[in-house]
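Checked the freezer inventory, then went back to the computational side. Two predictions to log before the end of the day. The first one is the construct we discussed on Monday; recording sequence and C-alpha cells without edits.
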Amino acid sequence: MQRRLAEETILFISIMKWVVLATGVGAVIGVAVTGFLKLLAWGMAVGQSHPYTFLLLPAALFLSALMVKYLAPDAQGHGTEKVIEAIHKHGARIKPMVVPVKLAATLVTLCIGGSVGKEGPCAQIGAGIASILAGWLKFGEHDRKKLVICGISAGFALVFGTPIAGSIFGVEVLFVGGILYEVLLPSFIAGITAYHISSALGIAYFYHPVKVVPVFTEGFFFQVVLAGVFFGLCSIMLIEILKVGANVSGRLRIWEPLKGLVGGSALVLLALVCSARYLGLGLDTVEACLSGSRIPWYAFLLKPVFTSITLNFGGSGGVVTPIFFVGSAAGSTFASWMGLNPATFAAMGMVGVLAGAANTPIAASILAMELFGPAIAPYATVACVISFLMTGHRSVYPSQVLSTAKSESLRVELGKDIEQIEARFTPRNKGLTTRVLWWSRLLGRLFRHIR
C-alpha cells in the first residue's frame, strides 16, 4: 500500500510539474509566434501590393543565405528538420541565435515571394524558445527534450489553428511509426495554450467545412483507396524533387549567398514562363481547390520544383504549406480525371500528401476533422494511412528515426535516420511470391510483344 501510494504521489507531482511548465512555455510561444505571424502578414501584404515584387527574389535569397551562413547555420532550410535533428543528435540544444535569424530569413524569403511555408519557422521558433527556457531552468537532457517537443507542438498548433492535430504532429513527426506517449500531455497543454493565446491576440484561422461528402458505397470507397495510392505517389514525387534540388545545390561549388542569386534568378524565370501562382504560400490556390474551382492539372507537379529551388538555394521557411498546395491540387486533378467532386478530394489530398510526405498519418487524419468537419474524416483517414504506407521509407524530414517497418516483407534497420534506410525485399510466402513474379514477367513479355 505504501509503495502504491508513493508511486501515485510521484505521478501526481510529475503531472502538476508538466501542467505548469507546458502552460508557461505555451503562453510564451503563443505571444512570440503571434508577433511573427502578424509581422509576416504585414510584410506579405506590402509585397503583394506590387505585382512584380518577385523580381527581387535573387536579392532576397542572397540576403537570406548571407544571414543564415554567418549568423546561424542551423536556421538553414525548412526549420522542422533542424529541430528533429537537434532532438535526436544534439540533446535538444538549439542555439538562441537561431530564433531571430530564422524569423528574419523567413520574412525576407516569403515577403518577396519564395515558395515556402510559415509552419517550419514557427516550430523552430517555438523549439528555440523552449530550449532557452530549459537552459535557464537547468534542465537535464530528458526534460529538455520534453520541453522542446512542447515547443514544436505549440508552434504547429497555433500556426494553422488546429490545436489537437498540431500537438499530435509535434510528437508524431519525430519517429516513423512511433509516438512518445510520455510527452502527449504537455504537448497538448502547450498546443492548446498557444492556440488560445494567438486567437485572443487576433490571429484569424482558416476553416473550410466540406459540404459535399458522398454517401458510402463500395464504389466510392474504392475510389478513396485509389486516391490514397495516388497521394502516396505524389508524396514520393515531392520528396524526390526536394532531394534533387539538394543534390544540385551541393554540386554547385560556390559561395552560399551566390547560390541565392542563382536560385532566385531561376525562380523569376520559372514564374515568368509558368505563373506566379507557384510562388509564396499559395493559399489562394489551396482555397480555390477546396472550393471546387478548376486549376491547371499540372499545378501539383510545378509547386515542388519552386519549393525545392527556394529551400535549397538560400531561402528559409517551412515545407508543410507547400505540401498543402501539392495535396489539394493533386486531389483536384485526381477528381477531374475520375469525374468526382473536386472539393472533396482536394480536402483528402491536402491531408493525404501530408501523411505520406511527413510520415504523420494520425496528425493528418485529425487535421482533416479539425479543418473540414467530421463527415469527411473516415475517408480522409483511409487515404492518409494508404498514402503513408505507399511513401515507403522516405520523408521530407531526413532526420526522422525509423521505429517500425511499413511491411513485414521489407527488411530495414530500425533506430536509424530515415535517410540512411535501405529497404530490402524479404518474401514471407515464397510460393506466392514466385507465382507473382512469374505472372509479372509473363505480362511484361506480352506487353513488349504487343507494343
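The second is the one RB wanted added to the comparison set:
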Amino acid sequence: MNSKYAWAMVMTVILGMGGCARLEVPVERPGEVTMQGKPVTLQGQTPAVGDHAPGFTAVANDMSTFTFMPGGKVWILTAVPSLETKVCSVETRRFNEEAAKLGADAGVITVSMDLPFTQKKWCGAEGIERVKTVSDYRDRAFGLMYGVRIKESGLLSRSVFVVDRRGKIVYEEIVPELSREPNYAAALAAAKLAGGS
C-alpha cells in the first residue's frame, strides 16, 4: 500500500471519529538540555514550582499498572535515561540510600524507559529496596506530562521533582547535561522542608 494513501486512510479514520478528534502535537523545547554536549529537544511542558503535580500511570516491575496520585506524603520523583548506565545507576543508588533517612512519610519513585523486567533485574542486582522504579515505556505519560521526553531518542531527560503532601511541586531540576548527576542536597533539603523527615 502506498504510504501517502495509508496516511490518508489513518487521517480519515481519526477525523471521522465524531468529527472532533485531533492530533495533539507536544510542546517542543530545543536545546534546553544536552547529551554529551550535543543539544537535544525536550517534549511536553514542565509544570512549575507551585503547580499541582500531574498524576500519571506507568508500569511496575511486575508488569502491573502503577498509578501515581500526588498527595498524602512527600514524593521525590526522578527521571533517568536508563538505569543500566553509569550516572543513572549512581544516582538511583544514592536516592535509595537517602530514602531511608526521609522517614515513612516520604517516598522516592524513579521513572525510566527501561522495560519493567530490566528494572527488576537491575534493582535485584543493586539491592535497591527503598526506591520504586517504574517504566514509562507503555503509556509515555510521565515524559510528556513532566516535559522531560527527549524527542531524538524517546528516553527521559535526567530530572528531579519534589512533591509535598498537598500534591504541589516544591522543587524541580532538569539537569542541563544528561551525563551529570542532579543536585542531591537541594532535592533532599526540599523534601525535608516539605515534611519528609
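For RB: Residues 86-102 form the longest helix (17 residues). The beta strands are 28-35, 38-43, 56-59, 65-68, 74-79, 106-112, 131-135, 149-150, 159-163, 169-174. Let me know if you want it refolded.
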